[in-house]
Amino acid sequence: MAQPLVLGIETSCDETGIALVRGLDLLTDVTASSMDDHARFGGIVPEVASRAHLESFVPTLDAALERAEVSLADVDAIAVTAGPGLVGSLTVGVSAAKALALAIDRPLYGVNHVLGHVAVDALVHGAFPEEFLGLVVSGGHSSLLLVRDIATDVTELGQTLDDAAGEAFDKVGRLLGLPYPGGPHVDRLSQTGDRSAIAFPRGLSRAKDLARHPYDFSFSGLKTAVARVVEGYEDAGREVPAADIAASFSEAVADVLVTKTLNACAAHGVSTVVIGGGFSANSRLRDLAAERLDAAGITLRIPPIRYCTDNGAMIAALGSAVLAAGLPPSTLDITIDSGMPLTDVLAHV
Ligand code: KG4
Ligand code: ZN
């Protein structure tokens, strides 16, 4: 029998993403982004994002159905991001998903966005092994997960105690006078700098911190250290060596992420790592992870960038996994949960 056709809807931040997935086959995914509307404000403006979702929703849905050459009546189940994310943005997606579920009389699954960042890799690289680590790094999250089944058995080993990795890059981008979002600009600049020019701190990496927070991250001290270095040059009337700062900062972030991931692999006897989230575009993280995981005999899976940034395929993929696990659908009473914990794959009423 054919696998169920799942419609995935993602509206947790600034991307309206809609995708159709059958089993592990991605039929299509379409994304509309409102980032250009936010750039001039130097950050995401929630009201602007919500309105953009409302405007983009129907055209994005129509485009996805057309490209997949299916009609709404062919859809067997609807998966939608229920959290975490921006309240207004999530509300647009969940309300639309409820309306569609009611209209076509199909089950609705309100799923966890962060787990979707891991789930999507199965569409690209095939079924997951029995056990693996998921490192989700983006502008909003930095989490290390031990995954036995993405729908039913995920343990959060650690997360950031303050800034997310992408957020730290965006803040350093601002310190270096780069446009928002700073992450890709800092990355580009770092490629022309000296990684060992400045010995920036590695958060939560000293013996006493490691004992309490073996797999947690902290990037706010690092950001402050960058600010001090920049100020030092400015106060002395000297030119800020922006490329060296960007390279040394990138090295500090990538080093901590990869070191803690490797430590977790060793502690849990895991030999596959999946990295997801928009920050996985970072060139230093990619290079260092490839180099050090390969040396340790660990398989690294990173989906192409378009499936790392927010998209509908990740939500359809997680919906597909939830259906395969036979979990009961959400009711039409579910609300959004802007702080949805990783322990929940599905939203509760
Ligand atoms: O997953 P994503 O698209 O949105 C969130 O859910 O946050 O991630 C975007 C984040 C932003 O903070 C952006 O600056 C950062 O990822 N980012 C990068 C790079 N590309 C995107 N940071 C560093 N280097 C990059 N190449
Ligand atoms: Zn995300």
From TrEMBL:
Its cofactor is Fe(2+). It comes from the Bacteria. Residues 26-316 form the Gcp-like domain. Binds 1 Fe(2+) ion per subunit. Its EC number is 2.3.1.234. Substrate binds at residues 136-140, 170, 183, 187, 282. GO terms for cellular component: cytoplasm. It is found in: Cytoplasm. Keywords: Acyltransferase, Cytoplasm, Iron, Metal-binding, Transferase, tRNA processing. Pfam families: TsaD. Its main location: cytoplasm. PANTHER family: TRNA N6-ADENOSINE THREONYLCARBAMOYLTRANSFERASE, TRNA N6-ADENOSINE THREONYLCARBAMOYLTRANSFERASE, MITOCHONDRIAL. Required for the formation of a threonylcarbamoyl group on adenosine at position 37 (t(6)A37) in tRNAs that read codons beginning with adenine. Is involved in the transfer of the threonylcarbamoyl moiety of threonylcarbamoyl-AMP (TC-AMP) to the N6 group of A37, together with TsaE and TsaB. TsaD likely plays a direct catalytic role in this reaction. NCBIfam families: gcp_kae1 (TIGR00329), T6A_TsaD_YgjD (TIGR03723). This is tRNA N6-adenosine threonylcarbamoyltransferase. It comes from Occultella aeris.
